[in-house]
Structures are given as C-alpha cells and as structure tokens.
Amino acid sequence: MAKKDYYEELGVERNASEAELKKAYRRHAMKYHPDRNPGDKEAETRFKAAKEAYEVLNDPQKRAAYDQFGHAGVDPSRGAGGFGGAGAGGFADIFGDVFGDIFGGGRRRGAQVFRGADLRYSLELNLEEAVRGTEVKIRVPAMASCDTCHGSGARPGTSPETCHTCGGHGQVRMQQGFFSIQQTCPHCHGSGKVISSPCVDCRGEGRVQQTKTLSVKVPAGVDDGDQIRLAGEGEAGENGGPPGDLYVQMRLKPHPIFKRDTDDLYCEMPVSFTTAALGGELEVPTLDGRASIKIPSGAQSEKLFRLRGKGVRNVRNGRVGDLYCKISVETPVNLTNRQQELLREFDELTREGGAKHNPREQSWIGKIKSFLG
User: Which residues contact 122 (CB under 8 A, 6 or more apart)?
Assistant: First the structure.
C-alpha cells in the first residue's frame, strides 16, 4: 500500500514552518497516542504515521530530500516503521520537545521541584451564616516548611550535597535498544541533592506536620457545595517548589424550619381545620423577621403561598429568591365527647349539601362507581 504524503499526513502546507509542524504533530499525538487509545490499532497506526512524517519533515536535510525525491529520497531504515526507526536519541528528543507540553514536563535540566498538595476543608455553616455571610477561623493540619533548616532538610550549619549519581540533575538517562529513557534518579529521588547530616526536626524531609489557624471570610449567599480557594495555603512544596492551595467547601446544616433550593426557601406550616375551612391570617417566619399570609376559606392541604424576595440573595448575581410556604391542614386529635358530637352533626349538614361542600370527595366517589360499574 502506497504511503500517504507526509505533509498531507500532518495536515500542513508544504511551506509549513517548524512551529507549524510541531503544532500539527502535537495535535495528532493528543488524538491518537496509544496511551490515550489503548487497544485501538487504527489510532496506533495513525500515531506512527504522524510520528514518521514529523521526524522526516522536522529534519532539514531529510525534508529537502523528501521534497525533491519523495519517499524514495528518505532512508527507510531511519524513518519507516514508526516506533522502531527514530535512532538512539531521535525519539527521546522528539518526545521531550513535543510531548513535554502534553504530559507535563518533558526533559528536565536540573533537580525536580514539586508543588505542594492541595488541601480540602469542610466548613459547616447554619443557614443564617450562609445567607448573611460570616468570618470564621479554622485549624488546618498540613505539611509546612521546616523552620529549623528552612526547608533544606540539612542540619543547621551543613548543606545538602550534589548527588554524584545524576550530577545534580535529578534524573538519569537509560538506553534501552533504540530508546533513550529519562528516569528519576534512584539515589536522590529527583532532588539532585543528598543530605549526609539530616535536620533532627524534619529528619531530612525539609517539611514538618503543623496545624495552622486561618481566617475564612464567607460571602453572603453561599450554598452547600460551594468552595472558597485560599491560594498558597495548602501543603508546602518539595525542593523549593510552590505551596498548594486550600479549598474550603461549604456544608450547610439542616435547618429546623426552612429547606433551601438554590436561592429559594421552603417551609411547611400546619393550620387548623377551622382556619383552612373558614380562612384567616397566618403568621410565618422569614430570615428577616415575621410576615403574614392570608389563608382563603376552603384552603386545602399542600396549597403553596409565595412570598417574593424573602429567599436568599445569590452570591454571584445578586438575585434574591422567594419563600414558599406550604400549608398542611391538621386533623384535630384527642377530641372530647362534645367535640365529637358537634363534628358528627357538622358532617351530616355538609353531606346534605353533596358536592357543594365536598367536591373532591364526591368526584372520587363518582369515579369509583364508574370503574366498578
């Protein structure tokens, strides 16, 4: 099967610059690399073809020969076959230059430094604190830079020494057939330094476990699951690396009256049988104090009343939600004989009116009779 044109393989013009070639190769590598497509033979073939094309076109001499003679002008022992034809150092060089941006780092020319780990802290708030905002102090355990050795890991008065295995680079290069593989130095573990006299407090780690107290300003309107990022308040980095961040996650405690749904609040209000039947005025709590709602006569359970602007002010856009009050008609209990007698008399009077007084009940009875024939 005839090989595809290298320029066409990468999707570039014949006058493409080195930067354009690298960008095109990176795009193909991101899409077809075997690590991203395990078991996909077609993707592996596309990756090998793109790699072969890049190796030829990125080399000025090979590119000139290819432009003049096509595939016949390129030594097949150097370019064909994808993974096996890069030569002793070619694959490692291309991998370091191109895939460094993709997989994070490429070739390192000095000791490795590591950013500190990010931390998470769950902050419990009641509804009022979340709605109005608050400021709280939290205690966070974390790895911090050792004050005794100032993070070096060496006993005061001494200094870390350059690792003789990697020459201070933190990495060593190993040759495996056609591949030249760069690995973390097994002696210094990537630091490029060895400590012969470790600090007694951190035992050569350069970091110690500490608990720090931080003040967290919680803005008004935060909701359950919202996060506040405190930059640089995570764990200290290693070998001089930057610290991580602390993410404070909001956890709202259950409220005895209200339930929150984004910016709206909901509550359930029990009302007496007589209030629901005759109507009346009901006092309800809000986060700002008290309010009242008018219950119309004949109100049924589950009826929802809306109080505009009595919800939560959104922390991002400032919109204020509403308060929804659902009434629940309470059936009287522990009735006296006289109360039972009056209710029976009341029931007889209402039944005389039929559907006029109990329309839902009468409708239900009609449906049952129709169903049973």
Answer: 249, 251
Report yes or no: 224 and 259 within 8 Å, Cβ to Cβ: no
Q: How far apart are CA 292 and CA 275, in angstroms?
A: 14
Pairing mode of beta strands 161-162, 134-145: unpaired
Number of helices (H), then strands (E), belonging to the chain: the values are 10, 15
Helix (H) or strand (E) holding 261: strand 259-261
CA-CA distance, 313 to 319, in Å (whole number)? 5
DSSP, res 336: -
- 327 burial class (0-12, 13-18, 19+ CB within 10 angstroms)? buried
How far is residue 107 CA from its own chain's centroid? 29
Are 234 and 245 contacting, i.e. CB atoms less than 8 angstroms apart? yes
Which pLDDT value is given to residue 137? 95
Quote the pLDDT of residue 75.
53
Q: Which of 95, 98, 101 is nearest to 83 (CA)?
A: 95
Q: Which of 215, 326, 313 is nearest to 271 (CA)?
A: 326
pLDDT tens sequence across 275-318 = 988 999 999 999 888 999 999 998 888 999 999 999 999 998 88
Report the b/e string of 179-207 with b at 16+ CB within 10 A: ebebeebeebebbbbbbeebbeebebbbb
Is pTM beyond 0.85? Reply is: no
155-200 pLDDT, tens digit per residue, is 998 888 888 888 888 888 776 655 667 778 888 877 788 888 899 8
Domains identified in the chain and CATH numbers: 6-103 (1.10.287.110), 118-155+203-254 (2.60.260.20), 259-330 (2.60.260.20), 337-372 (no CATH)
